[in-house]
Amino acid sequence: MLQEARSEGAVQVTGAELRAQVETARAFLRSAGLRKGDRCVLLARNSIRWVALDLALMAEGAVVVPLYARQAVAELVGMMRDAGPRLICAGDASLAEAVRGAWPASASAVPPIALFDEIFGSAQSAQAPTIATPVNLSDADPVTIIYTSGTSGEPKGVVLNYGNITYMLGCTGARLDLLMAGYTGIESVFHYLPLCFAGSWISLLSYLSRRSLVTLSTDLNKLQSEMQTAAPHYFLNVPTLLERVRRGIEENLATRGGTVAKIFTRAKAAYIPRQEAALDGRKNEQGGGGIWLAMARVAVFPTIRKRIGANLKVLFCGSAPLSRDTQLFFQMLGIPVLQVYGLTETTAICTMDDPRKVEPGWVGPAIPGIEMKLGDAAEILVRGPNIFPGYWNRPEETAKTLRDGWFHSGDQGEVNANGNWRITGRIKNLIILNSGHNIAPEPMEEKLLAALPGAQQVVLIGNGRSFLVAIVIGDVAREGVAAAVESLNAELPHYRRIHRFHIEREPLTIESGMLTANGKLRRDAIAARFADQIEMFYREKSVSA
């Protein structure tokens, strides 16, 4: 079953009703002349209709090009022109008009645009119309073209084929079987991430392949109430949300004060250092605190778990590395967080934490049938049936990325004796000072961000310069940033220390071009946006923060 969380109550469809919508959409697509192999853009926000149309397009053998409705319309048009679709399916008239208005007059004509209301009509019957046999697909047949986030340069269309998808769904299904072993009821799943992203889409297809009730979020401002309504057993997250949930819990308890806050603070001070010491193979210098932890497990943690989700067995997290401290925080509450690592080019997944043995701070071992190794500059290389066949209409880019049967991820990482992987940064993000020192910015940015509750992003600058500076985005006090920088610098060698910082209150957004469609930093754009401030830092003689 599938439902949308709405303010007036959940809107639900059964499997039979969803199938009816799929068949209605298929009939429309055939009447529009869509054929196997034709590309079709799917531009809309998450909804039951989005899911039905996606399934309909795949059943017709069309190549689905899902795009993010919040992305700048000029970027969307650029990707559409690159994909060359036969048809554009838009969720509403405003999206359609925005596309038509941004389409260059000098370019070829705008492809036909069909609105969801036109595709699905007014049919609300629970009885499925005549069921057409799905178009037969071979492993090599393309199923989708998903455009990369474009942190630098133009987005590229990643082609995923039938073999990629079916292999990955087998892997995710096996992992969910392991997680839900012994449970015989209907699995409850909450889903808020945009379905146009590879990891989100693979998750959705996995959920729909099981006996589950999937609740789609329709308002990101109401996630907490929607989660409580859905009461999920598990759901996919990005680190940003988990960090936000953690801060909310800590700030709420600090505001309330009293005995509960005291027990929580003491329990946390006992638990996290002990776990970190064990993971690092060193002695816990603090010790003690067992009584506070025992009290919290009885009097505090159950209440917090209930507010997050009474039925939660686990949280999944992907798209970026989650800080070990936050992973331990949720583990302390009794909610394991399983990390997943992958890229669009790897059909979203390369590694998954094993629920029987989670190692906080790592993203798990390679999934069965997938080979991973380290190449030059500690770059992660991947080989297996999950690897995409190539970029759409970009043979040169494909040749750069796929070499000797290995996909070159561009991510830097390491693997430990247990076979678990950790992601340490992106090769193209390396900052090379004019002294020749190489610095991966992500670990430092994550530590500084964790130390500043009001910060939304931290960006390090310094390529080709003599020292590092930081751009801190968010509602933070200068004194707090100075203290956090000083604390971080104290544990770093001289060349990795941050000498200056700039605070920017205005958030970085997708619409402003500062973030990619899935919320990653567009570093070149950010550097250009703050170029004057950065140049001023380097012109000044003093280098104290």
Describe the structure.
With about 550 residues, the chain is of the alpha/beta class. It has three domains: about 1-135 and about 190-230, ANL, N-terminal domain (Rossmann fold), CATH 3.40.50.12780; about 240-425, ANL, N-terminal domain (Rossmann fold), CATH 3.40.50; about 430-540, 2-Layer Sandwich (GMP Synthetase, Chain A, domain 3), CATH 3.30.300.30. Helix content is about 40%, strand content about 20%. The chain has 18 helices and 25 strands. The strands form seven sheets. Strands 15, 16, 18, 19 and 20 form a five-stranded antiparallel β-sheet that branches. The longest helix is centred in the middle third of the chain and has 23 residues, at about 260-280. The radius of gyration is 24 Å and the shape is globular. The model is unreliable at about 540-545 (pLDDT under 50).
CATH topology of the largest domain: Rossmann fold
> Care to count the β-strands?
25
- Tally of DSSP helical segments: 18
Sketch the major β-sheet.
5 strands, antiparallel
Shape designation: globular
At CATH's second level, what is the architecture of the largest domain? Answer: 3-Layer(aba) Sandwich
Indicate the structural class.
alpha/beta
The CATH superfamily of the largest domain bears the name ANL, N-terminal domain
* Beginning-to-end CA distance, first to last residue: 55 Å
Mean pLDDT: 90
Determine the strand fraction and express it as a percent band.
15-25%
Q: Gyration radius, to the nearest Å?
A: 24 Å
Q: Which residues sit in consecutive blocks of at least 5 with pLDDT less than 50?
A: 541-545
Task: Summarize the amount of helix as a percent range.
Answer: 25-40%
What's the CATH C level of the largest domain? Answer: Alpha Beta
